Amino acid sequence: MDNGMIIVDWLSVATGLGLAFVAIGLSYFQGFRMERDLIIGVVRAVLQLTILGYVLAYVFLIKSVWYTALILLLMAFAAAVTAKGRIKRPYPGAIPVLWISIAGGSFFAVTYITILTMADPQALTPRYLIPLGGMAIGNVLNGISLAGERFCSELESQRDRIEVLLSLGADSHRAAAESVRAAFTAAMIPTLNMLMVVGLIQIPGIMVGQVLTGTDPLIAARYQLLVLFMIVGGKTLSLTIGLRLAVRKYFTPEHQLRKELL
Questions:
Q1: What does the pLDDT look like over 211-246, one tens digit per residue?
Q2: What is the domain extent for residue 199?
Q3: Alpha-carbon span 140 to 49, nearest angstrom
Q4: Pick from 155, 144, 254, 248: which is nearest to 191 by CA?
Q5: What is the pTM for the complete model shown?
Q6: Residues 226 and 121 in one domain
Q7: How many helices (H) and strands (E) in the chain?
Q8: How far apart are the first and last CA of the chain?
Q9: Do 187 and 93 share a structural domain?
Q10: What sections of 87-176 are H helices per DSSP?
């Protein structure tokens, strides 16, 4: 132990890996066919988090907002590439649209929290900006992926209705309004569920981490609330940007549905 905190060494990590083997074994014997994805996911998680630990140890020594912003932009770009991969039929130019959407909502939320809410110069250091930015980008990634897939499915299933609305003079945003609403709702359900059960059923990660390191539980709760507000605001803004830009991709400037993308 160190300052009341249990130090987890690599032997502990190796022991914890047994739970991943349980998941892989269950998938194999039950015929779920998720073994390959689980193995790849576990290997990637180990490598990525280990590399991240070494990188952050170096980055935290560099107190440059611009350098930190560049790192966050690269994280948002990686999220955009990942989001495109989760959409079965991505539209042309999806990565720039997703990058703008993810970065726009995430950066706004992180900036709001660090500058207006925390109101402390220390909040603009990599030690705060990168973890907060990572949480914002990660949650936006999940939402934007769900929204993109659902939006495409809704356009396909509602194609006849959309064509009728367009023929009656509706513009593309009006014709796609129901599809946009359905995609937004589907993407926000996980976040709404989290808000409903937090503190009752679920103790969120940042609060658990701070409590385990000896932080006063009330202070940890206040930090967690800021993170939740950041996630809600950032995700909502990113979804709004992303869906509005997606409408422009699925419809021509003359407000005609691009059926070849469905």
A1: 877 888 898 899 999 999 999 999 999 999 999 999
A2: 63-261
A3: 20
A4: 144
A5: 0.85
A6: yes
A7: 10, 0
A8: 57
A9: yes
A10: 94-111, 126-157, 159-167, 172-175
